[in-house]
């Protein structure tokens, strides 16, 4: 299945995301992600679509707490690749709270990295400000992803 099957649709990025999610999750448990099953282009769409939803649902704190946080650095690169300059800037500021600005790709280790900020009002205030800035939606990630899908019409969804 190629992106070209969806480029004429109103939201081709959502269509790619929807197809990707069917491939990524194992039908037996529905919880384990197998990102290696999708192409690098589909992975970009999948991760950024999830990132957008994660931040809108619970902010950067939720991103770091949930499994999507395993991919923070890849998400940062992907944001830059699609031209989501403001979103990348905000994520970079949020990541700066981690030692050497390197959030662990292991969820439990990432929690340990943030443990010193558990009751830190400055941390909470800083992330809340970043959330508020993100909610202004200056980049319009959905549209940037639609453009990305259209530019990569020959990309496959499957790996």
Automatic annotation (TrEMBL):
Lineage top rank: taxon: Bacteria
Domain DNA mimic protein DMP19 C-terminal span(s) in chain numbering: 37-152
Pfam families cross-referenced by the UniProt entry: DMP19 (PF14300)
Descriptive protein name: Uncharacterized protein DUF4375
